[in-house]
Design the sequence.
């Protein structure tokens, strides 16, 4: 029997069912730039933001999350006294309760900017017992963090003494954490119920070890040895060109390999959290971001990532059902993702540096269609075909369950199709932005197009291209966006 990294205190027979029930998948959700598993802010710089969300959009995000089979949002709150936090929480908790969805607090201690941990207490006081707070395996309200910042174990002990929670922080910036060092456990072990690692989710800047779980495996083993649980991160990539940061941590096959590897972990994590910071899977609400720089590359209209959701739903179902690989789907599910400039593209304002220079780590980007699919039990009767710039770029025999890969691309349209034994295109990707050798956005835009499979043959939709560089007063362009009329 595969067991979770969480060591149950109950009898073996009872714990088997408890452990199955306990597995859950969350999405990090920013309450100071409210993007559903988005994140375009810098972890270390407090930036004034609108940070608001309409009540209707809070409900939409929750409905979308339920449709994906997510269990909860980890609500990232930096300054809990900021004017937009309480209204946003009110909308989210109200709709979550109505819809049977769960939420929990993730204290963004890096962005909080100091002050007492007890500043967050009003959130727990108002909502922990109001019916929508996610409970940890001990039945207590779960609380996570981004970072330990400069808070000490004693600070957390004091905070915990008046907040009876299930505490699953991200303390991965503390000395010895990724080594599961004895000294780390001596210092911090008494503070935590479980561990969540943030930075291990992506290859380092400039690295290509897509999907590598080595760091997580070490920390998880330490957690298991100390009777604690583990939450593992999952993310498509990390690209951020805003707030004085310009980095690329590889997308390519990171999420595909990581999903496959996570299912095979033994001991396994109890929870998965789909992360933000340079990635998003849900709606980008315009009221939630007032900053021009991220709006150049991350907009719902120009670079929606919702096409990845059906693939994530297959993973969520497999993870929660203790599967060691993706089961066959009921119908073909999948997506492609690719960036819209070539590695050889140079941008006209490169010499200005900063926002306009290539991101750190750009050299490990690739000119590829990155793809993953889950096929039904008759998967072997399908062929997965790729078309780039109108030419066949690859063809792969289908099989039941999960498969993924990369195909070299040329500029213009990128397209994946699932073709049955009779040669009919049953599913294909839809409209996406063209790949171009021209730097239309005036920045090295490494944010990918994410195109999900849709029923039918959509090869005739072509691709859309930027047609202008509409420079705003602050020097940023207004792209990517659809040209009017599309
Ligand atoms: C894909 O591109 C890479 C990098 O240019 C090259 O090394 C590789 O041979 C190409 N693969 C195919 C199948 O053309």
Sequence:
């Amino acid at each position: 029997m595969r067991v979770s990294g969480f060591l149950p205190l109950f009898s073996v027979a009872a714990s088997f069912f408890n452990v199955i029930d306990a597995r859950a998948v969350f999405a990090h959700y920013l309450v100071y730039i409210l993007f559903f598993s988005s994140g375009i802010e810098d972890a270390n710089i407090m930036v004034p933001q609108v940070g608001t969300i309409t009540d209707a959009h809070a409900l939409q995000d929750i409905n979308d999350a339920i449709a994906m089979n997510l269990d909860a949002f980890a609500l990232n709150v930096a300054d809990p006294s900021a004017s937009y936090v309480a209204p946003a929480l009110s909308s989210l908790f109200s709709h979550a309760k109505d819809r049977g969805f769960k939420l929990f607090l993730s204290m963004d201690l890096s962005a909080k900017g100091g002050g007492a941990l007890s500043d967050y207490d009003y959130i727990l006081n108002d909502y922990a017992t109001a019916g929508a707070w996610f409970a940890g395996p001990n039945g207590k309200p779960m609380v996570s963090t981004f970072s330990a910042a400069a808070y000490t174990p004693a600070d957390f002990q004091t905070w915990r003494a008046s907040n009876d929670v299930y505490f699953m922080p991200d303390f991965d910036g503390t000395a010895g954490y990724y080594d599961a060092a004895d000294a780390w456990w001596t210092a911090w072990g008494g503070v935590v119920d479980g561990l969540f690692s943030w930075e291990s989710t992506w290859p380092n800047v400039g690295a290509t070890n897509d999907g590598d779980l080595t760091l997580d495996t070490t920390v998880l083993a330490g957690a298991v040895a100390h009777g604690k649980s583990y939450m593992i991160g999952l993310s498509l990539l990390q690209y951020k060109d805003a707030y004085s940061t310009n980095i690329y941590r590889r997308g390519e096959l990171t999420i595909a390999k990581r999903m496959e590897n996570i299912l095979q972990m033994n001991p396994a994590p109890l929870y998965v959290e789909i992360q933000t910071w340079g990635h998003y899977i849900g709606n980008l609400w315009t009221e939630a971001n007032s900053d021009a720089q991220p709006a150049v590359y991350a907009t719902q209209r120009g670079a929606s990532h919702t096409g990845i959701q059906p693939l994530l739903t297959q993973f969520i179902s497999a993870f929660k059902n203790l599967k060691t690989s993706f089961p066959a789907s009921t119908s073909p599910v999948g997506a492609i993702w690719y960036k819209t400039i070539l590695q050889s593209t140079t941008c006209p304002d490169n010499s200005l540096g900063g926002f306009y220079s290539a991101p750190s780590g750009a050299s490990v980007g690739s000119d590829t269609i990155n793809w993953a699919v889950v096929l039904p039990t008759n998967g072997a009767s399908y062929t997965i075909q790729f078309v780039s710039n109108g030419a066949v770029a690859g063809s792969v025999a289908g099989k039941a369950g999960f498969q993924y890969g990369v195909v070299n691309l040329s500029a213009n349209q990128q397209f994946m199709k699932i073709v049955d034994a009779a040669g009919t295109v049953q599913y294909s990707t839809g409209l996406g932005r063209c790949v171009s050798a021209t730097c239309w956005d005036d920045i090295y835009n490494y944010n990918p197009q994410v195109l999900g499979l849709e029923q039918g043959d959509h090869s005739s939709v072509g691709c859309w291209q930027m047609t202008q560089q509409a420079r705003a007063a602050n020097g940023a362009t207004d792209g990517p966006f659809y040209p009017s009329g599309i």
